[in-house]
Design a protein that fits this description.
There is one protein chain. Helices cover 46% and strands 0% of the residues. It contains 2 helices and no strands. The longest helix has 22 residues. The chain is elongated, with a radius of gyration of 26 Å.
Length: 95
């Protein structure tokens, strides 16, 4: 028996055991529901991460280091603690 068959056999034993416990202790049903939701959300998030970047797209050929073209006074953080906002040249974000 290989590992895959052993995992399937254990999984097939786990589901009826969970159903039996849920019938015996109904308070476990919300826990099983939230466990399933958490596992589903984590799986979809990992799939999303594995598919690649969505927000940041770098042009490696024409601009290999885009952070070097930023002005020293450019505010790239939402809130900067030590920045004097009166001396910034920029009025607002560029859209």
């Amino acid at each position: 028996m290989n590992l895959h068959e052993a995992l399937i056999r254990d999984y097939q034993k786990m589901i009826p055991t969970m159903v039996k416990h849920a019938k015996k202790h109904p308070g476990l049903i919300p826990q099983f529901v939230f466990l399933a939701l958490g596992l589903t959300g984590a799986t979809f998030y990992l799939i999303r991460l594995a598919r690649g970047p969505h927000v940041t797209l770098w042009n490696k050929k024409n601009n290999p280091e885009p952070w070097n073209k930023l002005d020293p006074t450019y505010q790239y953080k939402f809130v900067a603690v030590n920045t004097d906002y009166k001396n910034l040249k920029k009025e607002g974000p560029d859209f």
